[in-house]
């Protein structure tokens, strides 16, 4: 049997390779550099690598070739396993920006008084002499930076994968480092470890479903490549039972990653238990990458089968929005409330996924669902990162104070920080002149154009419910007295320039996208359709 | 083309056993073993379908799944070990600080 050398288009995928190389270099730095120099080297290496990858993304974006009738741009690379097209490269850019924000938050040391938010020594048991020693010696885990980079690599790969196997590998590469990062909090370590355990067991369970679904799809189509699956679906080849079960199981795996109901149960626990910088990075990055993968899988591989998966997504979308919005009302913890609100946002994004896919089915000036979802992801990412960054600042004597009772009257003590938080909440609620409004408007329009009015109706009802719990937090911050009789209240710690920069960028993006959404919408439009 | 139905049915049974195990067992290590059983059931299905379709995609995928399963073991055991050392228990019921 002859062996033919595979062709690898390094020119198209070098940002991915660069991120991976930086992650590996980070591991080597951990092994060979003395402890006191690692922090600086790791942050510079990681930050520099991400900036270089971002520049590379822009270059790749400019170099995307027109393809076929001009609806899609890009090329299918590496023997059909990766596809570098408009939406994929657009998502690379968003993911890399989120990762940069993540690195800035990871590297913040001023809030904790000279150390990072991660455990000094994860192996030392909580409450023991070893932990106290690690704390007094100022130890910190700089391994978090390579872990972050591996996760970013997985996230970049996820929306780029063009076959089920690559999709599975990307899913694991993005998840495994996140499981570890979740368990590394410096304070409240029991909660953090528990979050890691829950995330890990449930994540592994769902990826079991995913790979079995992939096996069944392979049994149906005889190939793992999306184009061949599409061909088999279109021509009605193969066993329909395998196809249906396969689609169901693949959806379980992907819907788990985005935290859609009924697979959302891990979200609040993990978001609350994980160190807040990790939560910020994960809430944005995972969702962006997984929605890229969902769009590609459902549109490219299963586009011809949309009548069998659309009813399922209708139900999941409505359920997700209701569960997220209703359960957020009864929360008493800020991180948990934001987690449920992110579940609701997953529902809104799924509403967008149900929209019209082909530009040819629309009149001029209307947007397709791909664009709407891409735009929504951008708006969501900036506001959720900003909100979690603000949460890291609000502290009391025992560390971060995420309980609602501690936030009483924060607006009187620190009007600026409370105002910023209120602004991010208003954007998530979808108030006009913030990014969230334009995002919601975009996904609702595309879903309406596709006739999914019951879902849009549910989405509007849920948006109204959501306004209630966001505004309740604002009332809590600005209009409730922080009387001494009701226990301790939190105050705002002054952050270093790193966190301030993250919040400022989140604020600027949320504001600009709300007032002049045009440029980013055009950019999303320029991304075009998925390459088949 | 040979009939691979028995192998696919067996893989389905193994997958179901794994799935039920994850949902009913209490020890984190056993839960994790059941997840591994699910992955191996997928491997069996992949290899059976590769035989049916007469191409190697499924067999290669099985190797990837093995590698991923090994990586998952490394991460998983590390996390379960930390939990066990802190709480002196690997029961998934005891990890219940985060709820509602």
TrEMBL record, chain A:
Reactions performed catalytically: a quinone + NADH + 5 H(+)(in) = a quinol + NAD(+) + 4 H(+)(out)
Places the protein is found: Cell membrane; Endomembrane system; Membrane
One Pfam match: Proton_antipo_M
TM stretches of this protein: 13-33, 40-61, 89-107, 144-161, 167-185, 197-221, 241-260, 280-299, 311-330, 337-354, 374-394, 415-435, 455-480, 501-524
Record-linked PROSITE patterns: PROKAR_LIPOPROTEIN
Keyword Membrane appears in the UniProt entry: yes
Keywords for this protein: Cell membrane, Membrane, NAD, Quinone, Translocase, Transmembrane, Transmembrane helix, Transport
This protein's GO CC annotations: endomembrane system; plasma membrane
Membrane protein topology class: Multi-pass membrane protein
GO terms classed as biological process: ATP synthesis coupled electron transport
Top-level class of the enzyme under EC nomenclature: translocase
Recorded GO MF terms: NADH dehydrogenase (quinone) (non-electrogenic) activity; NADH dehydrogenase (ubiquinone) activity; quinone binding
EC identifiers of the protein: 7.1.1.-
InterPro entries according to UniProt: NADH-Q_OxRdtase_suN/2, ND/Mrp_TM
Keyword Signal: no
Domain NADH:quinone oxidoreductase/Mrp antiporter transmembrane residues, every copy: 161-465
Subunit structure: NDH-1 is composed of 14 different subunits. Subunits NuoA, H, J, K, L, M, N constitute the membrane sector of the complex.
Function: NDH-1 shuttles electrons from NADH, via FMN and iron-sulfur (Fe-S) centers, to quinones in the respiratory chain. The immediate electron acceptor for the enzyme in this species is believed to be a menaquinone. Couples the redox reaction to proton translocation (for every two electrons transferred, four hydrogen ions are translocated across the cytoplasmic membrane), and thus conserves the redox energy in a proton gradient.
Family to which this protein belongs: Belongs to the complex I subunit 2 family.
Record-given protein name: NADH-quinone oxidoreductase subunit N
Species for this entry: Nocardioides soli
Record lineage: Bacteria, Bacillati, Actinomycetota, Actinomycetes, Propionibacteriales
Gene (name only): nuoN
From TrEMBL, chain B:
InterPro entries: NADH_UbQ_OxRdtase_chain4L/K (IPR001133), NUOK/Mnh_C1-like (IPR039428)
Transmembrane intervals: 6-23, 30-50, 62-84
Top-level taxon: Bacteria
GO CC annotation: NADH dehydrogenase complex; plasma membrane
Keyword terms: Cell membrane, Membrane, NAD, Quinone, Translocase, Transmembrane, Transmembrane helix, Transport
GO biological process: ATP synthesis coupled electron transport
Keyword Transmembrane in annotation: yes
Protein family according to the UniProt entry: Belongs to the complex I subunit 4L family.
Protein name: NADH-quinone oxidoreductase subunit K
Species of origin: Nocardioides soli
Lineage: Bacteria, Bacillati, Actinomycetota, Actinomycetes, Propionibacteriales
Gene from which the chain derives: nuoK
